[in-house]
Amino acid sequence: MKRETKRVLMLSLKIGIGSAIAIFMANIFNLDNPTSAGTITLLSLLTTKWGTVKLVLRRISTFFVTILFCFLFFELIPSHWIAFGIVIACLVAYSEKMKCQNTLSVNAMIAVHYLSYLDFSVHFMMNEFYLILIGAMIAFLLNLVHDYSGEEEYLNSCMQYMEDKIQSLMYQIVHYIQSEERNTTIWKELEDIKVQAEKYIHIAMEYQDNTFSSLPDYYIRYFEMRALQCDILHMLHYKIRKIRKMPEEANELAEYIQYLIPFIHEQNNPQQQITSLHQMLKDKQNADLPATRLEFESRAMLLHIYMDLEEFLYTKKKFIDQTTEEQKKLYWR
Long-range pairs for 111-114 at CB < 8 Å and ≥24 separation? Predict the structure, then answer.
């Protein structure tokens, strides 16, 4: 709640200040329709830093397309209202085709200006171009103002929250294996933490788009890894619930999961835990065969659970392997 309030407040201030500065500058340069520069700033500030850069380039490229449509249809069609409708239709079709729908509002505003003035001189065209340039550049400069340290601190706290929740869920799974006491809340907790992980992925993407560094994809990969681990835990718990009678080997499974819990942290390379798991499975190859059908089914389900744990660990190992030395120095304080 505190982070969201801070984000909204900062965005509101940037839009208010930026729009005012854009209108002031447009007036300084004696441009027609100076308030349009403020509107362009407002629309451009609703994106991230990288989003603003891409939007500026798209606005400039589609500007010339808009000018071409206006010149052709307003000149060729006697009815200006019909010409305006065709221009807007063409702009919508072009925006959809080129996947640049976020430029449509400003391009439509330019078409309105042409409808109002019916001025196709180079001076009027440059006036419209300068409005876009002023609005877009002020938006870009204001988007450089960003609370990087606060966002990074928040993402680190989210990582800690994810690790604590996963550890808690694994403790509950251990408890169920040892006592077979059904805990109906774990299903909701698994769903909730998956939703949280997806929310954190979105926040990490916003953070990456607000910096020019190539390193912040670390946070995105981390939360994607934890979201995948949550899915694996969901499948694992479901399979444990399917076991009708816990065999003696289940205690060994519970002990292994309990052994894993302290290693659920950001910097751990799970290679040692993977090696321990493989050794356990190798030892089981020499165990006596099950005597009954029920025992056979239970052992088969346990084998699937061990395979899920292996996938759980390899998911983390892949994350560690893809983390560069530069990222480790920056984020592994």
Answer: 111/66, 111/69, 111/70, 111/84, 111/87, 112/84, 113/32, 113/33, 113/36, 114/70, 114/74
Taking each continuous run of H as one helix and of E as one strand, the counts in the chain are: 13, 0
| Whole-number pLDDT of residue 213 | 62
Any long-range contacts for 174-181 (C-beta under 8 Å, 24+ apart)?
174/254, 174/257, 174/258, 174/261, 176/237, 176/240, 176/241, 177/240, 177/246, 177/250, 177/251, 177/253, 177/254, 177/257, 178/251, 178/254, 180/246
Average pLDDT of the chain, as a whole number = 87
Dihedral sign computed on CA atoms, order 317, 322, 323, 325:
positive
The C-alpha atoms of residue 117 and residue 124 are separated, in whole angstroms, by: 9
C-beta of residue 17 within 8 angstroms of C-beta of residue 142:
yes
The amino acid occupying position 53 is: V
Residues 6+ apart with CB under 8 A from 146: 49, 210, 211
Does the structure show a pLDDT above 80 at 104?
yes
Taking only the tens place, the pLDDT of each residue in 170-220 is 998 888 888 766 666 787 888 899 899 999 999 888 888 777 665 568 999
List of E strands, the chain: none
The pair phi, psi for residue 214, each rounded to 5°, is -90, 0
Q: Rounded CA gap, 145 and 220, in Å?
A: 22
pLDDT at 4: 77
d(CA 243, CA 222) in angstroms, rounded, equals: 32
Sequence-distant (≥ 6) Cβ neighbours of residue 322 within 8 angstroms? 221
175 close to 181: Cβ distance less than 8 angstroms: yes
Whether residue 168 contacts residue 70, with contact meaning beta carbons closer than 8 Å, is answered with: no
Res 128 pLDDT > 90: yes
User: Residue 271 contacts by C-beta under 8 Å, 6 or more apart in sequence?
Assistant: 317
- Which amino acid is residue 124, in one-letter code? F
Distances (CA, A) of 41 to 14, 52, 124, 249, 276: 10, 10, 20, 65, 58
